[in-house]
Every structure is written in C-alpha cells, then in structure tokens.
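ok so for the tutorial part 2 we go from a plain amino acid sequence to predicted structure tokens. step 1 is just haveing the sequence, like this:
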Amino acid sequence: MLIAHKTFLLFIFMTFGLYTAFSQEVEKRVQYLSGTDNEHTVKWDFWCSGGRKSGKWGKIAVPAHWEQQGYGHYNYGRDYVTYGKNFRFHDEKGVYRHTFPVNEQWKGEKIFIVFEGVMTDAEVKINGQSAGPIHQGAFYRFRYDISDKLRYGKENQLEVTVSKMSGDPSVNNAERLADYWILGGIFRPVYLEIVPPSFIDYVAIDAKADGSFRMQAHLEGISAQMKVKASIIDQRGKTVDMLEALAREGDSVVSFNTKVSNPALWTAESPNRYRARTELYKNGKLVYLTQQQFGFRTIEIRKQNGIYLNGTKIKMKGVNRHVWWPETGRSVNARIDLEDVKLMKYMNMNAVRCSHYPPDQSFLDICDSLGLYVIDELAGWQKAYATPVGTKLVKEMVLRDLNHPSIIFWSNGNEGGHNFDLDTIYGHYDLSKRPVIHAHHRPGNDFNGIDCNHYEDYYSTQKILADTNIYMPTEFLHAQDDGGGAAGLADIWELHWKAKRGAGGFLWALVDEGLVRTDEQNMIDVNGVNAPDGLVGPHREHEGSVNAIREIYAPIKIDGKELPPDFDGRISVENRYHFTNLNQCTFKWELLNFDKLLQNGEGSTTVSSGKGRFPAIAPLATGHLSIDLPANWSNEDALALTAFDSQGNEICRWVWKIKPNEQLAVHQFDEPIDGTVNMQEKDSLIQLTANGITVSIHKNTGLLAHLANAYSKALSFKDGPVLVSGQAKAVSVKHYREGHIAVVEASCNGDLKYIKWKMDKSGWLEMDYAYALSGDQPFAGISFSYPENFVLGVKWLGKGPYRVWKNRLQGTTYGVWKNRNNNTQTGSYPWRYPEFKGYYADVTWMEMNTVEGKFYMSFPTEDQYVRLFDFYGLTGAKPHPDLPVGDISFLDAIPPIGTKLALNMTTDTKGLGPQSELNHLSGKLIERKVYFYFGTPKVNGENKQFEMPKVNVLTD
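step 2 — the prediction. this is what the tokens look like for a chain of 956 residues:
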C-alpha cells in the first residue's frame, strides 16, 4: 500500500521531528525523559509495594506496565465477578525515580513535564518538590509547569508515585471495574516541553465544508502587545490565506475568521488535510510558532434522518478497538497503530470507536491521514466519573484531540457510564462543537437524536429503525471465539444500508485481548471468556470473519453467486461509496484454468488477464461493468475480478466458475490401466477389487464397511453413507455388472431413498445417493467415519481458505487451497488460522493426506459442503451448534453460528436474521454423486503419489 507507506514515513518524520530539539528555537522543543514507545524504552529506577519483586529497588523500562516487567500482581477488571464479593483488587504502588539534565540556557524559558498516560493515580515530584496535584485517571495527557523547580545546568531528580487504585472511587468505578485488563504504571511517554515565556499553548480550529474557517489561538505569557499571524496551507504547500490579530497584555485568546474558496474536503474516502501555521511576534520579531493539521468538514445530526458529513448521509462500517499488544499491554507504538488502521481499511471499514478510552495520539494522526471516522470516548465502563474529576478529564481529552478531522463524535462513557453533567463540557473546549453521544446498552437512552443501543438482534433492529431515532449501535455482533463478527452481519448491514435512519454501527471488537503473562511462563491469557472478543488474534492473526467483513462491507458491491448462462462480460455493479465515483477505481480480470494445475502440479492458473477502469457510476447508484474478454473465454475454468480503489489498494476479489463441477471434478487419472473389476461375496460383505484397491460393502446395509489397497491392509474411511438428519433403513442390497463396471445397489425406506456404488477397472469408486427431508433442519446430507488423528492435512478445489457457517458464507473465494491439521480453538492459543476443522463451501474435489496414505473425494454436482471432524465454535453450555454424526460429511445444508450474547448462543440463532435461521427443507428429492479413489495411481507404469494442484492465485 504505497499511500500507507508514504503516510507512515510522513508521520514518523512529523512525530520525531516534533519531539527533538529543533534548530529553530521559536518552535516547541521536546526532551524525552522516557523512551518514545514500547519498543524504544529508557530504564528508570523502580520500587513496587506488593507482589513480585516487591520491596526492593530495581530497574524498569519506561514506558511500560510494571506487570510486564515482572513486578506486582495481575488483575482483570471483572475479577470482582470471577472471585466473588470478598475479592479485592491489588492496590499496589510503584515508585519511579529518574535523573535528567536541564540545559542551563533554558533558564528563563517555561518548562513543562508531560505525561501521556499513567495508570492510575500519579504523584509527581521534581527535586523533592511537588509538581502539582495528584493526577487521577489513566488514559489522559497531563502536565505540570516545573520551571521554578529545576536546577539549570545540573542533574535533576524526578520521582513519580503511581497507585493502581485511585484515591477517587469514581475513577476506580469508571476504569478499573471494566471488562478489560487493568494494569499499572507509566505506559505512555514522558517528556519535557520547552517554550519561551510568551507562547501559543494550543489552537482550536473549526473548518467547515463551505470553506468557513474559525480558529482560536490560546496564548500564555502575553506581557505586552504582540501580533499573531495565521497561515492556511494546503497539501501541496501552497498558502491559501493569511490572517492577523493583535494580542494585548494579559490576553489569553485571539480569534481568526475567514473563508477559503472550494477547499478540498476531508472524508474517510478522501482524507484531505490542511495545515495552520500560527506565529507570535513581539516588536516585529518572531518569538514562537506552532503548526497544526486539520480538515475542512461539517458534521451534522439531522434528527429522525441520519448522520451527515459535508451534506451527505454516511453510514458507519465500524469496529471497536482496544489499544493493545500482547507483550506490552496498552503500551504500543506508531507501527502498531498504523497496522491496525490498515487492517480496518483492509476490511473495507470506514469507522472506529476508541473503546473505552482515548487512544495514543499517533493512532488519531493515522486515522486523519488514511481516513477513518472516529468516536473518541471518555472512559466510564458502565460507571461514570464523578463531576469534579470527570470535568478535568474531559478537558484533557478534548484539548489533546480537538483538531483531528477524523473525530466526528465525542462519546461520554459506555453502557451507563454517563455523567450527564459532563455532556456540555466537551463544547467548552471544542470550537467545532462536535456532537456528543452516549454509547449505551439499554433501549430508551438515546441522546442527541442517536440511539446507540448495544447488541440488538435483526428483528429488534428492524423495530428501532422504524422508530424516530437514528440508530447507530456502538457495539453489536459480539465476536467472541468464532461467533458474531461477520456471522449474521450481511442481514443486519442490509437493514442499516436500506433504512432511512440506519447509520451503521461498530462490531465488537477488533482484537483478542490476550496478555503475555510474565508470571505464568509467558503464556497468552485471554481471561477465559472475557477477552477473546476479536476479529483477529492478539498478534492480529486473521479469523474467518475478516475476509467475510471485507466482502460484506466492500464499497463496490457485486451480487451473483454464479455467471448467468448468457454471460457476455457485463456485470451489475452497485456503488456503495458515499463520496467516490467508481470511475476513480480500477479492476483486473483473470481467466483461470485449474486443469493445467492438475496436470502440472504447480504454477500459475492465470491463462489470460486484463486491466481497466470502472465506468462512471455515482455514489449510491448502480450500473454495469463490461469486461472485454477474449473470444474463447468460455473454454477456461473460472473468471476472477479484482477491484482497486483510487490509491490502488485492493477492495475485493470475486471468482466465478465458468465450467460446472461436472467438468471440473476429478474422476480419472492419466495412467495406464489393465485388468477388470473383481466382485465377490465374502461373509457379510460384497467386495469390489480393481487396480489394487478393495472396497467392501455391507450386504445388509449397503454401507461402506472396509477398505484396503496394496500399500495399506486397512484404510479407516468407512461407515457411510449415513444420513445426518432423518431416518433410513436398507430393504434390499443387490450387486451386478454393467459392462466392465461392478455395481452394488441398496434400496432404502425412510428419508434415504437409495445408495448405489460403482467401481471401474481404474479403481475409482462412484457413489450415487438420494434423500428427501422436510421441515427445519440444522443440516442435511451424509457422513462417514475417519479418525481425525490420522489426518495430516487436506488440499481442495473449492471455496477457501476459511471455513464457513450458514450465516457467514462470505469472504471465501473459489480456488485451490491447502491446510494442515490443527486443533485451533478460535480465540485461544495458538491462534493458528485458518482453522482446519469445520464446514467448507462449494467443494469440487478434496485430497486427504493421512498416515494411511492419500485418498481423494470428488463432487461432480454443484454446491457441495464438506464438513471435517468435530470442532469448537463458541464458548457456552454447548461449544457449537449440533454437529452431524460421523467425522467427514458431504452436506447440502449447514448450520448458522450465534454470538456470545444470544440467549442460546449456539442453538437459537434465528434472531440474527434470515440467514441465521435453520434450513427450511421442502421434501424435494436431492440426488448426489461422489467419486472416491483410495489408492496410488500408476504413472508410466510406476506407483507415484498423485499430486493435486499446489497453488492458486490466493493460496498459501
């Protein structure tokens, strides 16, 4: 992603350019006392009052949490629930000491010590003197003027006493009783800010979409009349306006007003930014300057209608994000922030909620640069700050973040953690008067015309959308384990997309909050069911929902599971961008041939390809894309289409089969075959033998009873086909020949109608079967038995690489994939994805690699699901919806998955919408055919392991 790479370099330049001593002393100078982030730390002296390594002085990295440095105890915020009413949080104190030099030339300047984040209370002393009142609250930038406490030209002593538990009970209620890891320590950087006696403390900007520009420059130390100049500079470095104002002695604020013609507007799709350069002059001499990036945009809540940006209604494709890294907790760095924004953009998201506290400044800078709508949230997890401390913390949050164009809402706490006295405080400091919302979990708590109620299902969402308020759930479809996330999302997203008052929402949550426990051999702990809530693992390992969300949220929407019979290169397209015409986007088409891979064993499947630009389709409009395919395109196996945005970033990739499964399925090998099929009765079995392969069918049931070949006296695939739903009983089994083919046929009573086995001289075994089911069924199809622990891995032609659920079919593409056997339990160690066990969609053939050798299954009929073994879905009374009998199943219908917060999270999923209901079967006869090969083919007269295709464009 070229744009992301350039943005990151620019961000690094700006950040580290800011936090080093500038040669121009008219700008703020910064001297770090700590390191800059979790990868670049400085050792300070440290003492801890309790737990590990307590009672003695040592060295600790700063910034960091002291638990991650081997000190103290661990607590999760909900430990009071886990351990009962007698539980007490560890009220540890940590004492930090650090010496630092102060340049003698700084005497007469104003020097602040700045803390970006300390958990939870911080008492600061400089050379034994108190720097100021104890700061309470973990996630906020605070500072002290220490100019009169420093020894210039000498070493100075900094001492910080950090208390995990706050002296203010409301701070503990708001922060440390939360459903997340609560740690201790100085976890964000500490530095000195050096400014002249007269300086610009900060600027507050309100830049609207019509070009109107207001700015307040907040001044300190104005001891005489001074001039303030402001320049507005565009992205090319061109000054588009210059303004001046006079500041008189004692003034603390000067204001600027102007209007810029035709500004380039900021949106998540076009994150255009400007720069305000503000200069302070005394007697004609420049004494201070500061620069601030901003964007022109207008945010409106049009009650009973929607959320508007720059006059256009927008809908949030969002996610909740904790600031997190497993080894270092909430102490992170700009690279992690960048990767998280890129991950959200990869999923075609346009919004993020900073749950449940303000993030690092670098994260907001990157949201500004790459384009995400941000909800910046005051901490308050179900309990609110008291008014005195909350007022201070709102001020600290807003003053730090007020000029970020990405922030479109302030959130005054979470799920009842709203102190209504604080609602008006945001506007005291935010010149642009962004709307304030309440992220709540109970109906009827709408605020400012927006209902943010959490975890409504599909049908209750319909009712809320039919009511009077705008509906924007700030949490929904809880993604613990393999539930929620994209499961059920397609239905709920379509409700919001099509509803007048639907504003989209924010999935819970981005990352599994797994913490490396330094007290437990560095295991990664997700605190049971409390913290594995992410769409990705702790180190951002992609779960199945990631690509599904990517497809569901794609701003270029293409429907159609298959190409129509009269396909002529025209594809219907819907533009789901809010601001972007599709003629700014490009595409690439590819014709794929899987047969060439089958023959060669490796190599690219792309036979021919081409590129182009989408036609002009306005936002929210529909149209057609015409692909200029070669005349012989229908001779190939599949058509792939990849869409790219205006910066060349991939949006989505679709693959459609051109040929039917009947032509793509494998049912013969290119090998010389001699001999015939031997058929005989032996005890209770009918044995079919050809090409060294022996298949035994039970005379009474028609089921596969035993297998053997020249290399394995017994193959363990057997006991099928049995119905996974319904009843069946064989009433007659007969065997006969049809030419050179041996046939065993079973007629059945019940829901299974017949089973027919056919073997030819090559050893390929064909199984035909038919059944009919009525009513609501969790699944439909047949199963066989095979020991899971015998399986090394699988390779298949079909949808992949991830498993699917009935209500999460999106995000898989047709191709050749492979996966080794793993026991991944989604949301738990070792976070190895894709999971091996589960349901796989639209399978054409599958190669099973086992300790008994390889065997092959091939499906010439369409829309075949294959289930592999028993697997974990979602923590609860039952760890998954009911599973089919047996181990390997060939299915026509599979079940949906629920969420952590469903009433019966695995068995009652219908509330999530139509795709989350059970399968409604009509009693129609379903006829299927499967080919098996249980041997090793001969090539040029030698026995060789047959190689299925190794790669496709998107494999491995």
